[in-house]
Amino acid sequence: MSQKRDGSGAPQLPGLFPAKAEPVSPFYTILRSAPPDYLLQRDEPVDFPPDFPVYYFFYGTLTTPAQVKRILDLPEEPQLRKAEVVGYAVAKWGDYPALINGKQGDVVTGSAYLVQSEEEAQKLSYYETNAYKVADCRIYFKDVKAPKEISGKVFMYAGDAQALLEQRFDRKLWSRQMAGKLG
Keyword annotations for this protein (predicted)? Predict the structure, then answer.
């Protein structure tokens, strides 16, 4: 594929930028002068959490220390840290809250717990059922302890979020729950 070049020598990809006759937004101006891998670059390194221990963000029934103690069979109630995640929303799945992707800037408040082992993570997953999946998230702590923020894990709704919001049959979740049970 041949590429056209503008007066600056930068390649012009067909269909990516508006024709010069149209008004050009500042965003397009920035993209025209940016290096080819501009959209893939990050200002800060990504710190993926280690396997364990790793913080899990809770937003529903697991925000109660007594509930976490019972599910994980702990000798005493755990210390949960007040926390929040940004860019998510909570919808209702029956009587239960379900975390879904939200709008930029949406905030969900809850608690975070430092999961110590794969065994603890499995117990939490069993409690949450396969209606939820574990996802990576960024946790922002609301207390005075360090760290103030960290990469962690959260249980998100595993079905079709739009179907959940519209309160209609969720074929995606139904298929997930029936996996291996049919046929």
Answer: Transferase
